[in-house]
Iron-binding protein (Paenibacillus flagellatus), 70 residues
Amino acid sequence: MEQAKPTIKINDNGSIRVTGDVELVDGEGNKFETGASFSLCRCGASEKKPFCDGTHKKIGFQSAPRAQQP
């Protein structure tokens, strides 16, 4: 059975949601423990970097980028 392709979603005013079979490593190649899906910090204020802890809501982070359509 073929696995679903991993997806990375930029949430409006929030985190980056990663779903699927991916490996997250630091700058030295050490693996972070992750589940089948996880959220990465995009606002820079999380106390659990690189993971999101919801701080973007408290600080009013605003960003809603859109992919360019051909």
About this structure: The longest helix spans residues 55-59. The domain at 7-59 is CATH 3.40.5 (Ribosomal Protein L9; domain 1). The chain has one helix and three strands.
